Give the backbone structure.
Amino acid sequence: GYEGNLVDKNRKLLKEGVLYISDDHKKGKREEYYVILFNNLLLLTKKLHRFKKHEKKKPYRFVDEIELTDVIIEYDPAIKQGFRIQCEKCFLRIYSSNNEDTAQWFNVIRSCILELQKSKVFGVDFDSL
């Protein structure tokens, strides 16, 4: 499970939903994730395939977290209905089911990154000064 702390007075839940993600390690294979976007953090979860049959909803398991402070996001013409995110530990191609949803995710993530960059002074978090 997730070992971090999601409780933070400055953290806000902005968007959640299903996205399809591929990375360099999986050679372009798209996998379904349930993504939870906060103003400073992106949580990636996956459906558990083994679950109790009486449960109506499939449970999810934590896969990874991406801090949005040092992330680059950009559209890539080679990615249809998608965009890419790059950080020190990842290079992800992110896809949605349609262009409108893709644009919404891209714009919300991009605005989070821009807000986080504004809160830094010379690369240092303003709150830590």
